[in-house]
Amino acid sequence: MNNHSSLQWVPVKIEDDHEVYELWNGLKKLISLSLNLREHTAKIDSEDCRRNFHIDKEGFLLNTTVLKNEYGIKIGQITHEILFKNEGLIELNEERFHYCIQNNPLAEILIYKKHKNNPLLICGIRAENGKPDVFFARTTSESAAQTSPSLLMALCWFLFLPIAKENIEAFAVTA
Q: Would you say 151 and 32 are in contact if contact means Cβ atoms under 8 Å apart?
């Protein structure tokens, strides 16, 4: 990963119907994301809380991923740009964020409000098999179609936690 930020998603367990990822800041684990691909559910754990979510696909081209809480109430969605496969809009808790996936030279996620040049958060992605590139939208496997939006939504959910609010400038350091 380049010198932008020490935030990084790390895959911990990848199986046919279950995946676990951890968000690390240097040597400290911030959150854990556990995905049940068969049941289309996600569980996010942090020091402060544990939440369960249901993940659905909607839209004409199924380009919108909807996140519902434990009670089935819609709390957010991610819409992938049709023309720009690694960019899109995230809405969570009535706030709007944009995201961009950059592969230069290693994969990282930028979460921002208005401009890419002013990110709220930059997070590296440790790719599988040492591949440097990660592409989130227009994936061919059902697993990737659930995992990618879940990682993005978990990052935005993380922005609402007290630890993120205290350290937001450190998580968006640009070179």
A: no
